[in-house]
Amino acid sequence: MKRLLLRTSSFIRSARRIVRKDPAIAEDIRTVLHLMAEDAFHPALKTHKLKGKLEGSWACSVGYDLRIIFEFVQHEGSEAILLEAIGTHREVY
Question: Measured on CA atoms in the order 69, 62, 47, 67, is the torsion positive or negative?
Fold first, then answer.
């Protein structure tokens, strides 16, 4: 089941900042977003639930130290993924 990806403005700003610093990472981000839309629990993503102040959100990996924080939400009657943040482990947790 393919899910719609909804991007928050903070996700978009952070992604642009990351790509400006390292343009080569753009393709990795695109690949991960495509995988998320197809299967948010694909083994390559290392998707896991978060605890504490981020409880209710999930995280997945985009390479060694880059993470995407997201939630599963309902959008127009179907399940979607709300992309909340992207950044290094230290930045997003």
Answer: negative
Cα-only R_g, the chain? 12
What the chain holds in terms of domains, given with CATH numbers, is 4-84 (3.30.2310.20)
Token pair 């998707």 in the structure block, residue: 47
pLDDT tens digit sequence for 47-79: 999 999 999 999 999 988 999 999 999 999 999
Give the list of residues 6+ apart from residue 87 with CB closer than 8 angstroms, or none. 14, 18, 66, 67
SS3 call for 75: strand
Q: How many other C-beta atoms are found inside a 10 Å radius of the C-beta of residue 18?
A: 19
Evaluate if residue 82 carries a pLDDT over 80.
yes
Taking alpha carbons only, the member of 62, 69, 71 closest to residue 44 is 62
